UniProtKB/TrEMBL annotation:
Gene3D superfamilies: Nucleic acid-binding proteins. Belongs to the universal ribosomal protein uS17 family. This is Small ribosomal subunit protein uS17. The keyword Hydrolase does not apply. The lineage of its organism: Bacteria, Pseudomonadati, Pseudomonadota, Alphaproteobacteria, Caulobacterales. The gene is rpsQ. One of its GO terms (biological process) is translation. Coiled coil: none annotated. SUPFAM superfamilies: Nucleic acid-binding proteins (SSF50249). Keywords: Ribonucleoprotein, Ribosomal protein, RNA-binding, rRNA-binding. It comes from the Bacteria. GO terms for molecular function: rRNA binding; structural constituent of ribosome.
Length: 79
């Protein structure tokens, strides 16, 4: 089964080798037929401490690295 890849905004980079990424999803309300936004925060492993708060990051599923971390960030694309 392929690993899920999510994209979101880094809201915290205070932990060592850890970032908190806020992922937002939109869906259509079944009764009201209105677009609804929901967000969730994921703790992700950042080996190089490369991401800072406010940056957009892609995260991918991985084996559990700690109690909260089951995601890791994909390396930044070099421009």
């Amino acid at each position: 089964m392929p690993k899920r890849i999510l994209e979101g905004v880094v809201v915290s980079d205070k932990g060592d080798k850890t970032v908190v990424v806020k992922v937002e999803r939109t869906f259509l309300h079944p009764l009201l037929k209105k677009t609804v936004r929901r967000s969730k925060k994921y703790h992700a492993h950042d080996e190089a401490n490369a991401y800072k708060a406010g940056e957009v990051a892609k995260i991918v599923e991985c084996a559990p690295k700690s109690k909260l971390k089951t995601w890791e960030v994909l390396p930044k694309a070099s421009a």
